[in-house]
Amino acid sequence: MCIGVPCQIVRIHDQMATIEIGGTQREVCLDLLIDESETRVGDFVIIHAGFAIQRINAQEAEETLQLLKEMME
């Protein structure tokens, strides 16, 4: 089973973004996003296998992260 995890973008350079989740930062590719030129620092994206695959709003990201946290407990 694969889980797409919401992460917040903290930096963008060309088609790559630095995302952060739980204090950990990683580099991901933005190429799979529809109209990636509209993606901004501070946006939340769903990450899978090193790619941002969808932008989501902050409320949806927080709700998903809370559910994941509850599952881990």
Q: What is the CATH top level name?
A: Mainly Beta
Structural class: alpha+beta
Q: What would the principal axes of the Cα set say about the shape? A: globular
CATH topology heading: SH3 type barrels
CA gyration radius, whole angstroms = 12 Å
Instruction: Find the count of extended strands (DSSP E, 2+ residues).
Output: 5
Q: Distance between the terminal alpha carbons, to the nearest Å? A: 19 Å
- Count of DSSP H/I helices: 1
The chain-level mean pLDDT equals 90
Series of H and E elements = EEEEEH
Low-confidence stretches: none
Helix content: 10-25%
Count structural domains.
Answer: 1
Largest sheet: 5 strands, antiparallel
Which range does the strand content fall in?
Answer: 35-45%
Strand ordering within the main sheet? 3-2-1-4-5
CATH architecture: Roll
Top keywords for this entry?
5 strands; 73 residues; 1 helix; SH3 type barrels; 44% strand; globular
Produce the secondary structure layout:
Elements: E1 5-13, E2 16-21, E3 24-29, E4 44-48, E5 51-56, H1 58-72
Care to describe what's here?
This protein is α+β, with helices and mostly antiparallel strands and 73 residues long. The protein has a single domain (5-72), classed as SH3 type barrels, CATH 2.30.30.140. Helices cover 21% and strands 44% of the residues. The chain is built from one helix and five strands. A five-stranded antiparallel β-sheet has the order 3-2-1-4-5, covered by helices on one side. A hairpin with a 2-residue loop joins strand 2 (16-21) and strand 3. The longest helix has 15 residues, at 58-72. The two termini are 19 Å apart.
